[in-house]
Write a structure and sequence with these properties.
This protein is mainly α. Helix content is about 85%, strand content about 0%. The chain has two domains: about 45 residues; about 190 residues, Sodium:dicarboxylate symporter (Proton glutamate symport protein).
Amino acid sequence: MRPPAGKVTLSVMEALYDAFQTLFGWIMYVLPLGLCVLFASQIAHSGLTVFKALFKFIVVCYLISVLMLIVYNAMIWWRRRGSFFSPLLALREALVVAFGTSSSYATMPCALHCLQENLKVEKSTANLVIPLGVNLHQQGMVMFFVLSTMLFAQIYHVPLGFQEIMIVLIGSILIAMGGTGVPGPGALVMLSIVLVPLGLPSAPAIILLMAVDPIVSPILAVVSIFGNCMATVLAEERVR
């Protein structure tokens, strides 16, 4: 665009940006109150036992995550040998960053460094598999969505047969792929794609999961980044 029109357009866009930023700032002040009101309606419907269910859900998420990390570590060790815990030690810096940031994207540079320097993975292989895996291979999120669906199916006493289980598995994989890079609440909204076909209410589920998302997100990021590091090692061995 020509300079006069371009300057006007940029000014309008900057004004809209500032306006929306201010609006979101106002919303954040009333968000806790709104969540409390929504929680109150959900608690009135299902009782305080929902908090016990959420606590068990968090424990199960961490237990399964630890089991997955052991499996990933064993697969890398099977390929590289040495000490059984050597893969975990080699990737410890990336895992700490993933746990601290709760983001696979933010951990990519550190993961690439650990793979190339500590596990001696070829740079070309790491640069291909890690970015691809972070976008398409989110095992932690898939696990989270599957467990979330099972949790609310139990709360609302909805039986899950073979067809329903396939909907949960396929839907969770697609949601994890589509929600990559989306902040926690945004990705949780996509869970309705799985809940609605099963006859489960999506709004209460999203509200309750927003409460536990900050607690489980760190370990989910660790699972995803460790799983992608494992996939990188396996991919290099296959190329060789």
